[in-house]
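Help! Submission page says 'invalid entity' but I think these are all valid:
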Amino acid sequence: MAILENNTVLEKLKEKFGAYIISSEEQYGMLSVTADSAFNIDILKFLWEDKDLEFRFLTDICGIHYPNSPQPFGVIYHLHSFKYNVRLRLKCFITEEQSISTATMIYASANWMERETYDFFGIIFSGHPNLKRILNMDELTVFPMRKQYPLEDPNRVDKKDYYFGR
Amino acid sequence: MQQDTQLTEGIDKDLIVGEPEVEYTTLNLGPTHPATHGIFQNILKMDGEKIISSEQTVGYIHRAFEKIAEHRPFYQITTLTDRLNYCSSPINNMGWHMTVEKLLNIEIPKRVQYMRVVIMELARIADHIICNSVLGVDTGALTGFLYVFQEREKIYDIFEQICGARLTTNIGRVGGFEREWPEKAFQLTEKFIKEFPKVWKEFEGLLARNRIFMDRTIGVGAISAERALSYGFTGPNLRAAGVDYDVRVMTSYSSYEDFTFDIPVGENGDTYDRFMVLNGEIWESLKIIRQALDKIKQEPQGVYRADAPNVVLPPKEEVYNNMEALIYHFKIVMGEVDAPVGEVYHAVEGGNGELGFYLVSDGGRTPYRLHFRRPCFIYYQAYPEMISGSLLSDAVVTLSSLNVIAGELDA
Amino acid sequence: MTQVTSIKYGNNLSTYNGPGFQLTSLDKAIGLARKNSLWPLPFATSCCGIEFMATMAATYDLARFGSERLSFSPRQADLLIVAGTISKKLGPVLKQVYIQMAEPKWVLSVGACASSGGIFDTYSVLQGIDEIIPVDVYVPGCPPRPEQILDGFMRIQDLVAHESLRRRNSEHYKQLLAKYDIE
């Protein structure tokens, strides 16, 4: 089994996608690549098919919210190549009005992970077979993990904030 | 004509006309159902006793862990991680501690790593005991459950000696353990690994080659390796399908590379394979604990924490006499830790699979974003595919062999 | 010649007995029978559910109190044991299970999450099941030790033994249920 270095992965991605790779960094041994969100499926497919990379396992999809940034919502994919034992993090940022393509065509596990990200952040995944809330109540009207919403239920009557130091 | 009258006389000709009408029944399995071992709902569309398709609803104990974690300092999040896979909470605790140590670049002494291995393997045994005995209960074998739960009490005794709690342990601290283990903890562990094999052999002998159990579980709820990989399976369920992916071997943590152990792998990915893989893992865990106890004896005694004064509480005598220790004590208790800005992903092999922690830190006392990669949530998606075409009783057995823990499913 | 003896039981259940007869009051006899044959419905959601399983197992046997048969059907259960976190999504389910139970019924709330929301003061967790159903005994702990659960169970037994036979039809009880919007 050949050793696949993070630099090699980055070079191959830059070679294929050039300008669409916005930035990259390596933190704690894991390469983290930020890419243009319109090309997320192309990048995932390339990583799946390329014989020298073979990132065929989707470890995780999650979302993140940076309210002060021009593209506040991020979708973060964690990928794992079993053949070369290398992990990769792919980040794509979008604005509130944009949507991002679903990865369910490539990985069946993306189904619920994208539903969870939609439930928490309101990120729309276009092409998803069943994009509705999964963990929260269906009647909830907001997307709770966004930074503007508080942790506690604002309508509760028995816990006075004064006594809890809030 | 002669034959016709002989065969059909007495039969009402109007009955034997055309094709029978097929009507599907909708059956609601859950959310509170004894067989689901947790609170999740499956609405099954059935043709008689056979399942055509199913729709799942989860989220009935969604406790918003990820949102809470954004408001708690690092050491308070350990209590949240306890409640993810509550059958083996020490593994979750250790995984979180290792994530924070990776972020803060803290080096852990070997002895502490071996102690962590002992705790994690004991927790893994506890988790697999529940899964296999409850699988027995679902097929009707209630006795095994009562016998092996006694052994879980012994594991609880060991946890109690070390951290004071039985189930949601909050064991260890970032940087090691809060105090040296009492001698009784080591004695109880030695006693456990001496006496447990006999009990587990008895339980295995009850079910592993039992004709009825094999008939109920072989070929039931099978999934192929390709589909399992596409669905993001990890842990015993993936190993039962034939792929030997184990986080302890692929990306070793806490000195697992110093231990020799095998990884049991199945063939068909059906319920029987999952049962046997879990059995095999218990034997391997016992081997690892034996090796770890021997290795702990060889390391310099008395070392139970890392040398990291900014996360590890200093000893009380120094706090009362020494200015730096007082300041560190104050800072740590207030939750102020000098965390760098960055993000880290760390995975451990939980009872169900790869439990990952994705921590984004902005330098403050609480994480900016913490995401748990929960194995149950990811592989439970495959359940409709695994049960379509099988009978209702097979669906129940498949569900309990998957070891879905509701706390990890919903977080 | 009948011998009249006065025996004091634990509940001050003084009786007369002799060969072939025993004299006591009806509600005490029924209370004694009821308290030793409560059939629980374990509504176990999370970590407290595992401690409840440990309570059912051999070391801290719940069966010796008469709860040998766990009933998962509300119609056949006497005692609703809510162990674990109840989220707002699960609230209506819990209420429906409670309504389906037949009188007389008692509720034991096991654990901090069921009693008051526990450590999860969040938007999705119900801060205590007493927001939707009336509770008789609360067992604190996170999770409570099996001995604590047994203690809570014994308090329920005390309540059951001393309950008046007319309580379920009384005005007071009806007002209590009306407070929770249960007819």
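Support: the input was valid. A stray whitespace character was the problem, and the output above is from the cleaned input. Chain B has one domain: 56-410.
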